[in-house]
Amino acid sequence: MRKVILAAATLASALALSGCGGKSGGVFNRQRPDEFAVSRQAPLVIPPDFALTPPQPGAPRPQEADSSTQALQALFGGRAQRSAGETAVISQAGANNAPAGVRSAVGDPATNVVDKGSVTRDIIAAPAGAGQDATVTTPQ
Predict the structure, then answer these.
(1) What pTM, to 2 d.p., does this model score?
(2) Among residues 111, 109, 88, which one has the least CA distance to residue 99?
(3) Which of 49, 64, 95, 107 fits 90 for a cystine, CB–CB 3.0-4.6 Å?
């Protein structure tokens, strides 16, 4: 039995290999481009640019500018003009009376804050709905 299986495997592999070659146009006999027949391309020509201006003495180089400033300028385009209505709303909100460093004063340890406790925190963090998970119990 072993000899029959070995003979069948040999015959199958011989048939598979015979399909790869020969004059019938097997796998290794297909048409492909000739890699040695290379044609020369015309060279690239860079046209002159007469719009270039010489650098100003003492001016910073464009490559050395602050990247974060360049990114903000590209995204937002600098300060925009405010409309009359927007200016009126901002002035009524008290923009002229606000202290200059209000954002840094908020995180200051000397700033007085009111601690509402853990109950308020639990109420705010509770999921919406009237289920068991939404109720808040006070510790006793």
Answers:
(1) 0.23
(2) 111
(3) 95
